[in-house]
Amino acid sequence: MTPAVVKVRPDTPFKEIAQVLAENDITSVPVVDEQGRPLGVVSEADLLRNEAAGEDPAGLLPAAHLSSKERARSGATTAHGLMTSPAECARPEWTVVEAARVMDHRHIKRLPVVDEAGRLVGIVSRSDLLRVFLRHDHAIREEVRDDLVARILGLSPDSVDVRVDDGIVTLRGTMDDQSAARTLARLCQGVDGVVSVADHLGYRVADAPSRS
């Protein structure tokens, strides 16, 4: 996340919000209360939607078809009336996958990050999430070997052949049991910068079948 967050207050006027977005080259801005807690988010789309709801000065276009909610917001001149609320927020301990899923599901480009008290502590954007994929292959390989294989699974780093090419992790070797092999492949998916995992691991002992 980016800890230095551009934000506005509920009483920030329309024109000032537009200036904030343009000057900081951002597409949305969180609206916070006096305690720094996000109340909502105002985006370029919110501003444009507000303008599109107005009457055509030339009188050539038909009136916009608005829902009751959109009609109520169409005359708003401050962040309080323009914002989309409540704000969809993330927590600092979220993984990149969690943040990416929320942003994709909600069709949003920026996600405020709040602490346990609900106060704004940062913001994460789509570009922030994509930045992890710029991580070098050798750094990914070292994390898989030293952190996952050695520290978490308690095995020798050389017990598994780990290769990384353009973020694609390939695992080869024979592990003691099936569950350990599955665990390693699953953990690799959560390593920053990993695009996909090619699991070619074998195992000496298969998991016992579950009893229904």
Concise overview:
This protein has helices spanning 14-23, 44-52, 68-73, 79-82, 96-106, 126-131, 137-152, 178-189, and strands at 28-32, 38-43, 110-114, 120-125, 161-165, 168-177, 196-205. The protein is of the alpha+beta class and 212 residues long. The chain folds into two domains: 14-132, CBS-domain (Roll), CATH 3.10.580.10; 135-205, Histidine-containing Protein, Chain: A (2-Layer Sandwich).
Polypeptide structure, described:
This protein is α+β, with helices and mostly antiparallel strands. The protein folds into 2 domains: 14-132, CBS-domain (Roll); 135-205, Histidine-containing Protein, Chain: A (2-Layer Sandwich). 35% of the residues lie in helices and 22% in strands. It has helices at residues 14-23, 44-52, 68-73, 79-82, 96-106, 126-131, 137-152, 178-189; strands at 28-32, 38-43, 110-114, 120-125, 161-165, 168-177, 196-205. The strands form 3 sheets. A 3-stranded mixed beta sheet has the order 5-6-7, covered by helices on one side. The chain has a two-stranded antiparallel sheet with strand order 1-2. Strands 3-4 form a two-stranded antiparallel ribbon. A hairpin with a 2-residue loop joins β5 and β6. The chain is elongated. The mean pLDDT is 88.
